[in-house]
Amino acid sequence: MKKIDILLSKNEPKINVEVCGWVKTFRGNRFIAINDGSTIDNLQCVIDFEKTENSLLKRINTGAAVKIIGDLIESQGSGQNLEINVKEISIIGDSDPDIYPIQPKKHSLEFLREKAHLRIRTTTFNAVMRIRSILSFAIHEFFQGKNFYYMNTPIITGSDAEGAGEMFRVTTLPCSINSNKENSFKKDFFGKETHLTVSGQLEAESYAMGLGNVYTFGPTFRAENSNTTRHLAEFWMIEPEMAFYDLNDNMNLAEEFIKSILSTILLKCEKDLKFLDDRYNNEQKKKPLIERSEMGLIEKMNFVVNNNFKRITYTESIDILKNSKPNKKNKFKFKINEWGVDLQSEHERFLVEKYYKCPVIIYDYPAKIKAFYMRMNEDQMTVRAMDVLFPGIGEIVGGSQREERLEVLEKRMKDMGVDEDELSWYLDLRRFGSAPHSGFGLGFERLVQFTTGMANIRDVIPFPRTPQNASF
Ligand code: 4AD
Ligand code: MG
């Protein structure tokens, strides 16, 4: 049995081929379009209805799984070079056209989210998920090519890596036991309070201090009640961590990394991208003029690959925002009045989409709004943090140079109320052979959003988890 992409890519006739797939459409009792997921292209199979039993013809419905044997010949019609002259067709799995939810017509993404187990049969999700897979591999290739070691960090953990308290508790205790009480944790599976990890960074730091350069690529969980198009409760994150890297090295790596994987996708996913590019352009046309993206999907990716990211300090960004038109005209939901406030996505998008019109890296953020592990600057006000901001997405990468000085870190943890007992092992890394080091986290789904042009993050992960939703 051959996959459709192999059959079509050879672009030459062949007798007696066997293909399996799902029926997309069946027209005029003659033309069956089947797809097997190997390519965006459907294979046209031409059947002689006069020589086929009516009962069999009736079972060739959208969604049915079929096996076809026939000759691959030059197509008589336009629209495809090759088609199959069907000699034998068997229905492997029927699909009742009256109740099959994925009809051959345009469905809304909202509707398809409720049918997440079947939406992969649509051309759009087929293309998005192929790109998602190829992106994963490109990420491994990038780091492996630089001799980074891939490591797996624990999913169940006792520490809150971000110190933001947005964790899901892991327990085997029955609901009736109030697990807030200190001694009831002793009865729990691990004998202590545990959660799903929000980030593998702290454990990656430990390994960077022995393996040099490492990266993780795993699931992370955040119980933040954000119902937005860019937040998931379960998402995948790539976190490289590098010994002897300072913030500059870190920013250089992040920029090189993103450009490299985007180039790979541009090279390897031409057909899927072309389809998604058209889709993106159509979506843009439905938006009011000021909200439309100035570039197409492929154009945007090429732009990112070919242009330097703009790097500015947080302080510079505040100056720009303070004096910006939307700020002066009270157009921002959160007006920027003073240094020290956290940037909202409206501000990030203004800087990226309107002001610089290119990806922006903001660094040296106020210590107060960033996590405890970031390295304090000499000004004692800012830390060596950096965020990479992307058009249409906002923050795609968050990272920093880590605080490698024991006393400074201890003080910062105390000031921020971080549990020192739980993280005594983390402090050991500063007690024994401490060294400057840096890393960042890239939100995988936000990257898939950027490369596929899907507006909602729920449509770039197979089975999204969001507040009030954990179906499938
Ligand atoms: O900025 P964040 O919170 O950084 C960290 O977790 C660091 N420990 C990373 C590191 O330095 N090793 O998250 C990193 C990235 C964000 O920039 C964003 O792309 C993504 O993770 N992200 C989310 N993606 C989807 N849904 C959410 N709820 C996300 N929260 C963060
Ligand atoms: Mg962040």
Describe what you observe in this structure.
The mean pLDDT is 95. The protein is of the alpha+beta class and 472 residues long. It is globular and about 85 Å long. The protein is built from 15 helices and 16 strands. The chain has two domains: 4-105, OB fold (Dihydrolipoamide Acetyltransferase, E2P) (Beta Barrel); 121-459, BirA Bifunctional Protein, domain 2 (2-Layer Sandwich), CATH 3.30.930. The protein has helices at 4-10, 54-57, 109-114, 123-145, 182-186, 201-211, 247-268, 270-285, 297-306, 314-322, 325-328, 345-356, 406-415, 424-431, 444-452, and strands at 14-27, 31-35, 43-46, 65-74, 82-93, 149-150, 156-157, 169-170, 194-196, 213-221, 234-243, 310-313, 360-366, 382-390, 394-401, 437-443. The strands form three sheets. The protein has an eight-stranded mixed sheet. Helix 4 packs across helix 8 (270-285) and helix 7 (247-268) crosses helix 9.
Largest sheet: 8 strands, mixed
Supply the helix-strand structural class: alpha+beta
Outline type: globular
What's the number of structural domains? 2
CATH topology of the largest domain: BirA Bifunctional Protein, domain 2
Heteromolecules bound: 4-amino-1,4-dioxobutan-2-aminium adenosine-5'-monophosphate, magnesium ion
Give the assembly state of these chains.
single chain
Poorly predicted parts:
none
Number of strands: 16
Helix segment count?
A: 15
Distance between the termini: 31 Å
Reported CATH architecture of the largest domain = 2-Layer Sandwich
Instruction: Calculate the mean pLDDT score and round it.
Output: 95
The fraction of residues assigned to DSSP E strands is: 15-25%
- Could you estimate the helical fraction of the residues in percent? 25-40%
Whole-angstrom Rg: 26 Å
Q: In order across it, which strands form the biggest sheet?
A: 6-10-11-16-15-14-13-12
